[in-house]
Amino acid sequence: MPLALLALAVGAFGIGTTEFVMMGLLPDVADDLHISIPAAGHLVSAYALGVVIGAPLLAAVTARMSRRTVLIGLMVLFVVGNALSAFAPGNGSLLAARFLSGLPHGAFFGVGAVVATAMVPPERKARSVSLMFLGLTVANIAGVPAATLMGQHLGWRATFLGVSVIGLVAIASLALLIPHDHTQASATGLRGELAALTSLPVWLALGTTVAGFGALFAAYSYVTPMLTDSAGFAQAHVTLLLALFGVGATAGNLLGGRLADHSLRGTLFGGLVSLAAVLALFPLLMRAEWSAAVAVTLLGTAAFVTGSPLQLMVMEKAAAAPSLASSANQAAFNLANAGGAWIGGLALAAGFGVTSPALAGAVLAVLGLGVAGAARAVDRRRQSAPASAGRVVTSHLPEESGALRH
């Protein structure tokens, strides 16, 4: 694999760290700024809102720019946002800085996925995307715990300065390692990129992302009370168990990338079935400490097996203008985060029990399977209709040329 993928992974590591570290810093930030914990929780929402807005917007307005230049510019914006977070004098300015920090998130992964697949042979495209996402999953194992520890001992502002340094390293890596010949601007420009979002298969692929990862976040958002109230873990052990989730996510990400290069659809369906099964078993697995630890690890594995296939599915359906659609998939991921947490909360509020969010997640995973099945049916109908042949988008991905047609 090209060394340039390391530069993308470094950027992903910084983004993953700043996205998830706020959860661990909420008490420190609330105490320092003299606000309540729920008010501090709006800082998480501000970042997610930045991702949802910034992903399609920045991908669209930079459609005619060199993708190498876009990636470097996005990381500059990332550094600025985190530096402003470190020096924010109050809650309002910190909210604005967190929103700014979230703006480049989705576009970086979206454009980065396009660049990553352009640097490798067709049979390695999914693995190239999974190696970029490796930075995101490793952030949950090492980056977030280390950044949280730094914030607890040196102050939360030091955490954001540290993340800014990671961003500077990413900028240097991108400038040195990303070759110019794989980063040409989109030939279609803004109009072509926007046209890609009018395709039904693109929207079905995005819908699969929302439902599939909504299933994950319905359960993961409430995994701490499951571990303490159902499995019987002490609060002090939860951080270690969340690191196990990161280990599972990393393994699933790498496995999904390798499998998707052989069967994109098969990996996606297999991942969603596995996710539904793991979530359905959560009430049983959360009855003992050892099985709860296994459940958290398997949750990360099953969910992130689908990461690379979903990203490539969107790119396949918008093959002529993939940057905007690929970035929109990251916005869909964050919508899944918010929507899944909301649905899991509804199950808890209804009094169905502490593990009920996992069962709600299992329902969402089945819904994701249904949307993915509908997408496959649409593809088959379009391929079998001669009158529609001129409208079928030809994919640049490997499975379209061999036995893995869908």
From TrEMBL:
Lineage of the organism: Bacteria, Bacillati, Actinomycetota, Actinomycetes, Kitasatosporales
Protein name per UniProt: MFS transporter
Membrane topology: Multi-pass membrane protein
Annotated segments matching region Disordered: 386-406
PANTHER family: CHLORAMPHENICOL EFFLUX PUMP RV0191, PURINE EFFLUX PUMP PBUE
Main location: membrane
Keywords in alphabetical order: Cell membrane, Membrane, Transmembrane, Transmembrane helix
Residue ranges of domain Major facilitator superfamily (MFS) profile in the record: 4-380
Domain of life per record: Bacteria
Intracellular or extracellular location(s): Cell membrane
